[in-house]
Structures are given as structure tokens and as C-alpha cells.
Amino acid sequence: MSTSRRLPEETSRLSANDGTAQIATALDAASSDPSLAPDVRLLLAQARDALHAASSDAETARLRYHALFDAVPDPVSILDERGIVLDLNKAGMAAYRRPREEIIGQPIEVLNPDLPKGHLGPVWDTINRGRTYVIEVTNMRADGTRFPVEVHSAGFQHDGRKCLVAVARDLSGRHDAELRYRELMEVIDKGIVVQDEHLNFTYGNSAALRLLGVGGDESLDDAMRLEAWMLVREDGTVMPETEYPAVRAMRDGRIIESTLLGLYHRQRRQLSWLSVTVVPQYAADADRPHQVLSMFSDVTELKRDSALFDRVQALAHIGGWEWDCTSDQLYLTDESARILAQDTPPATMPGMIDCLAPGDRLRMRAALDHVIREGRDFDLELQGARADGHAFWVRVIGGGVPGDPATSHLTGTLQDITELKHGEETLRVQARSDPLTGLMNRDAILGEISARLADPAQSRVAVLYIDLDRFKVVNDVLGHNAGDELLMNAARRIVRAVGTEGLIARFGGDEFLVVCSTEDDEDRPERVADSILDAFSDSFRFEKEEFAITASIGIARAPEHGERPQTLIHSADAAMYDSKRRIRNGWQVFTPALAQTQQDRLRVETHLRRATDNNEFHLVYQPQVDLKGGRIIAAEALIRWQNRQLGEMRPDHFIGHAETTGDIVRIGSWVLREACRQAAQWRDEGLGIVRVAVNVSYRQFLGDDLADNVHGVLAEFDLPGTALELEFTERVLIEDAPDTLRTFARLREQGVVLTIDDFGEGYSALNYLRRLPIHGLKLSQLFVEGVPDNKSDVAVCQAVAGIARSLGLGLVAEGVESEQQRRFLLELGVPVGQGFLFAPGLRPDEFARRLKSNQPVGDTT
Predict the structure, then answer these.
(1) 3-class secondary structure, 693
(2) EAL domain spans which residues (predicted)?
(3) Opening angle at CA 345, ends 343 and 347, nearest 5
């Protein structure tokens, strides 16, 4: 390149003779621009002055022009009218990191690839009005990295052609740019949002928050989560995420101009149309965007008459309407007409109102009048009928047109909510119904009782509390399918028995409630109860099984037995328990005596809950003896409860309460540890290892890791497993689940003796008995007390003894109280017994005294 720095012939030639005046004019305009730095203006002014001073010497002027041109510290480029680069100073070559030859003769886009189409139009428009054009853009270096610049452009004539001189100031180090940038965005009446490289929303101006409906303490990023919105293309179809303008701008690194999209908010059921332009933004020295800026405006109103908008309304089941109050002309979108589904779409507001149910017509007219008088919007859910007679539900929203102070026009939307209403009704029914039987559920019947008690005209009611006898036996033995079938069958029988005499609900488990009025018939509750008992007189069947199920019923009346729902139900519940305890398959009316019983029960349960912490329990030990020789061979630990207010309590007075409340689990753990502690103490006293039998409740068996607990207690007192016998109720026989079998196997591995207590009373089934790895059976006192005179008891004892022998199990008889019983049991082959014939439950020291002497107990002849 020569020192003269002549421009290429293919572009334009700026000579000293014919270009000095034009260049001087351009430099004069640039040097007077107050937005440029003083040092830049000074250098440009010096260039101007030099040209004026040396006009007679073109070569000298040109040399001085280039010297001063290159002295400008910011990039300066000269462009022709089309945007072709004619000249570039040294600062420009340094900034763009390219040799001059790669730039001269190229379009300006080689330095600024992000310029939109037609970008020179507003430049020349500003210059032609005598002003300097200023813009902030992103320029690109040779390596692809970007840097922000502020470009000041001025025009001049060269050879009769219009040219530009453009000065670019690097903004990378500008400290206050962000502040001015945010201030500008806040005053613009268009929505502007900024998203980071992961498309999380980091900023939104006031207009954006208003247009998007973001308010209160909600963050923009939370409000704009994708699951809350649906984006729609121009053709009305759902826009996939890959087509979102912000996604495209971030992915392609280019401006996405004026994209029309629909923004539908799922929860608000609101659709807006937006015109969106998205600009990628680059950090200094970056080759890909670090964020995108979206500028948008709401064009929903412009879309009102568009078929495209009608299509999207159909997708969202939302239509629009506009009413001219003066002419009574009504405009409906296609979707609104479809929702109303009349033979001819109504053309007036009265015509649309006539589509509604009579009561809702009044509400709609009142809402319209209210808007016209006071200017307030309305939002109604109304019911109507289509031309085919089918009912519909519609949500109507309306209000005045903005900028119409006379409220001569109203606009709004129609949304088809028929399916929503049907769904709400289904949920309402489901929320009030028991899913198994279809009867009312607990919440529904409580609501009905509460409503009746609150209404003096209906407050005289009775509650029948029904509990199925022996339901748990069927459910446990035959399984839950049989239990569900039984409950459904029982519900059908109760429904037939009650008829129209009362409301029926499944209150929980195998419990049902009937609520009937006593206003016109005082005897109705007892009559209904008898009818229900009659309905249970026939046996129930499941597959090949047939079994009898009866019911126990408690009756309570309002207001005598309770003025609140829960009080009334508790009274009926207490009466039901009394009926079940005394007779079963019967009914009982609540009495004050039952109220006292109920209070006593609550009192016992209250004290029982604190008994373990207060050290109120102690154990007594009943000897198990050799029926032939009379010597003590083991002991059964029996719990006693001494309470300062209740006195001495035997197990049959409180164990049932403990089972109900769940306290049995803590009590059982205490008994296990205390029995093992006592066995260890006897051992330490030189009495040897005495096997102690401990009862394990069914709830304790299910609730605890029993095998681990037993292992821990035995280890604590250094006892062998053979020192402990665990007695289970027959209920565990039916629990042949893998966990149950595994627990029994682990206990047996420890040497613990496993026994089924009171065998024959409840769930006995041989196919279950043979599956469990147990050691023995205990013959129930219920059968022992009738021998040898009662033939039935004799037969049961013989059968149990035969089962034990056939399965190789040990056998212990409980409740031996007479010599005749002992001899009968010996003849039957029962080796061990316990009962008052030998000793009651003994204190530990008394048991130890007898154990030391260990003399035969009772007549052994």
C-alpha cells in the first residue's frame, strides 16, 4: 500500500481537488456532535481546519487528512450510500483485527453481522433531517468475537454521491451503561424481558409485567414457567418449544423479527396475541449470545376479526363478544356461536340472554345494567340450553371498552365450562360417597346431621350406629376380597331394610350409620333397627363358603342424647358396644348408665396411657406344673395394674382398652423386659433357669421387629432363648405372610419356645397351624372348666389333644381348678397344667420360695 493511501478504483476515489470540501463538511458536522468525546471532536476539527488551510495543495491536504484520520482513537469508516466501506482508519483496523484490504470494498455487515434488513433507511432519514444518527450495535472482530459500540453517523457528498462517515465508540468499559439501559426499558411502553443463556427470566420491565399479568410478590421467572402457559402459532396449532422466538435467537445468534404468537394462560384461561422481536446480546469478546432481549406488544385487539383468532379460541373453548349498547348489535366470534349452539346465532343481546335459564337471564341483565351504570366488569357462570335441548354451562366475562367514557360498547368472552361443571359435580358426588358401597361417606353424613340439628324444623333425629359382628373373622380368614364383598352385600341389605325411612352412610370399616327423623314417628328408630336385624338373618355366601354375620345396633336421639353430631354419634356408639357385649344381633338405646360406662372407659384409657411412665405395672407369676408329679417346671408372667385412683386392675379390665388405643405395644415391651429381668434375678439367686411365658399381642407382633427386640432383651440379661416362652393368640395363624414366617423362624433359631394361646377359641384352622414353626398349644380354660361332665368340652379337649399329638406339639392346660380336671387331663395325655388348683399368680418372692422347696403341688395320687 502506498503512502498516499488511495482508495480502490472499484469503490470511490476521494481526491484532494474534488473531495476536500465535502470531507471538510462531514468532519465539521462530526466535530460539532456534543455526544462525542472532546478529544475526538478536537482531532476531527483539526482535520477540518487542515483541509481548509491547505486546499491549494491537494497532495499535502490528502496526506494531512490521512494523518489526522488515522489519529482518531476510535474506529472511523467511510461508506457509500449502499453501505460499502470506502475507507477505514488505523483504529478501525486494530479494533476489528483485520487488514485494510479485507474491509475496503465490503458491505458494512462484514463488521456488524447483526444489522437488520433495511438498516440504512433510518440512518439516511435522520441525516436528511440535518441530524447525526446514533445507534448502539454489536461489531464483530476477525476471530468472531463481539464488542458493543455506539456509532455516530454523518453524511457528505462525494462526486455527486451521498456518503457516510461513521465513528464507533467501544462501550465495553462503560460503567453506567446498564443503568441507562434499564432506565430506557422502564419508560418504553412495550414489554421487554431478558432471558439468560438457559432461558430463565432475569428481568422484565413494568410494561412486560403488566401485559403478562405478573403482580404481587410473584417473580417473573416463576410466573413464566412453561407448564403455566401454552404458545400458539399463527395457524392456531400449538407451537413446539424449538420454535419459540427466544430459543431460536439464542440458538442461531441472530435477531428474530416481529413474530406473531398466541400466549394462553392455562389457569386464567386467558389468551393474548403478541408481536415479538428477539435480539441476541453478546458479552465482550464472546462469540455466542449470553442472553436474549425480547420486545413485544399486545395485538389481541387487532386480531378480533381474524379467522385465525377464532381458531385459537376454539382450541381454548373461549369465544368473544362485543355489544353496541346504542344499536343493540351483538358481534359473536365463531367460537362464541358454537358454544351457544343455536339454530341462528343471536344478533342482539336479548337474543343471547334468551339462550340462558330463566334465573340466569335475570343475573345477566343485572350485570349488564351494572356495567353501563357504574363501569364495573362482571364475571358470571351461567347455565343455558342449546337448540338441541342439551344444557350447557358458560362463563361470561364482560366490561366496558377502554377509552369509551360513555360505555356505549361492551366487550367480553364466553368460555364453555360444561365439562368442568360436570367434572365438579362428579367430584362433589365422589367426595360425599364411599367408593366401595356407594353410600354416603363419613364427611357427608356428619354434614347432614349437622344441618338437621341446626334447623329447628328437622332437629328431632335419631342415629343408628351399626357394627357387623364377626366381620374381622371373615376378613382375616377369607381375605380382603371376601371382606369387600361382604361389606357391599351388607350395604345392599341395609338399604333395602331402611328404604325411605332414613339416610345411610358407611362410617368406616364395618360400621354404618342411619339417620332418621323422629318428628312424626317416635318409634321409627326401633322399627328401622328391627328391619335391619331381619335383613341379616340369612347367611352370607362367598364362593363356596357360607357364614352367618349379624349386626349390633346402638340408638341415640337428639336432643336427649346429644345436641352436636359427634356427641350424638358417640352416644349411639356406646349403646352399640353395650348391645354387642350383652347379646349381639340386637339393638340398644342409649341410657345415662351407658354414659357413665363411656366416661369410665375414657377414664381408664387416660390413666392407662401414663401407667408405664408412672411405674404402675407389676408382674405376678403363675406356676406351670407337671400334672403327674406336681413339680413346678415353668411360670407364666401375668400383668397387674395398681393405680392410685382406680385401684388394683386385672388384665381383663384394661387389656382390651390397651388394644384399642395402641398402648398395648408399649405395655408388651415392658412385660417382655421385666419378665426377662426377673428370670435373670432368679438365676442369680441360684434357682437355675426358669422358663417364663409372656403373652404377645397381635398388635405388638405386627408393630415391632419382635425378633430383634427379643434378641436384645435376652442379650441384656445374658439369658438363653430357652428361658423365654412367647404365647401368641390364634390370630397369628392366619398371618402366613413371608414376614410372619420369617419372624417365627428367627425366634425359633434363638431357642425361644413358641406357643399358641387359648387354642380352639377363635380362628383355629389346621392348614394354617401346620405352617408355623411353633412348639406347643395351650388348651383354653373355656373348655377345661367343663370337663369331665360337659360332653362338648370333653370332645373339644380330646380334639385339641389329638391335634397336638399328631403334629408333635407340646400341650399345656389352663384353668385347672379341681382334682377331677387334673385326672381327666392326665388320662387325656396332657402333661402340663396351670390354675388355682396349684397356685394363683404369685409375687416374685413367693414364687421363688415355692421354687426353692419345689414340693409337689396338689394331689398327685
Answers:
(1) strand
(2) 601-855
(3) 135
9-20: per-residue pLDDT in tens? Answer: 333 334 444 455
Beta strands in 699-843 (DSSP E): 724-728, 753-759, 776-779, 810-813, 832-833
Average pLDDT over residues 444-463: 89
pLDDT at 584: 72
**Cα–Cα distance, 807 to 827 (Å, whole number):** 19
Query: Domains plus CATH for the chain?
Result: 16-170 (3.30.450.20), 177-214+225-303 (3.30.450.20), 317-423 (3.30.450.20), 434-590 (3.30.70.270), 611-853 (3.20.20.450)
The number of angstroms, rounded, from the C-alpha of 113 to the middle of its chain's C-alpha atoms is 49
How far apart are alpha carbons 75 and 137 in whole angstroms? 14
Q: What is the DSSP letter of 239?
A: P
What whole-number distance in Å separates Cα of residue 613 and Cα of residue 603? Answer: 17
Strands 692-696 and 256-265: what pairing? Answer: unpaired
**Which pairs from 492-500 meet CB under 8 Å and 24+ separation?**
493/532, 493/535, 493/536, 494/466, 494/532, 494/535, 495/439, 496/535, 497/528, 497/531, 497/532, 497/534, 497/535, 498/528, 498/531, 498/532
Write down the pLDDT at residue 2. Answer: 37
The per-residue pLDDT for 682 is 95
Please state, in angstroms and rounded to a whole number, the distance separating the CA atoms of residues 291 and 249: 9
Do residues 690 and 643 touch, judged by C-beta distance below 8 A?
Answer: no
Sequence-distant (6+) residues with CB within 8 A of 414 are 318, 319, 320, 321, 332, 335, 336, 339, 340, 394, 395, 396
Phi, psi of 838, rounded to the nearest 5 degrees: -100, -50
Which of 69-78, 292-301, 821-830 shows the highest mean pLDDT? 821-830
The helix or strand, by DSSP H or E, that contains position 193, with its residue range, turns out to be: strand 191-196
Cell of 634: 415353668
Q: Omega before 831 cis (within 30°)?
A: no
Hey, which residues does 136 pair with through a beta bridge? 150
Q: Which helix (H) or strand (E) holds 636?
A: strand 632-643
Mean pLDDT, range 774-787, rounded to an integer: 90
Beta bridge partners, 753, equal 725
Q: Which residues contact 825 (CB under 8 A, 6 or more apart)?
A: 627, 784, 787, 797, 813, 816, 833
Nearest to 417 by CA among 384, 389, 392, 380: 392
Tell me, what's the pLDDT at 12?
39
The upper half-sphere exposure of residue 639, i.e. CA atoms within 13 Å in the direction of its Cβ, equals 25
For residue 138, the model assigns a pLDDT of: 86
Q: Which of 444, 495, 435 is nearest to 466 (CA)?
A: 495
Task: Record the cell numbers describing residue 322, joined without a space.
Answer: 362485543
Query: How far is the C-alpha of 308 from the C-alpha of 236, rounded, in Å?
Result: 6
**Average pLDDT for the chain:** 83
CB 669 within 8 A of CB 708: no
pTM above 0.70, yes or no: no
Collapsed DSSP state (helix, strand, coil) of residue 534: helix
Q: Which residue has the cell 489519529?
A: 71
Question: Could you tell me where the beta strands, DSSP code E, fall in 697-804?
Answer: 724-728, 753-759, 776-779
CA 313 to CA 308: how far, in whole Å? 9
Total residues found in the chain within this entry: 861
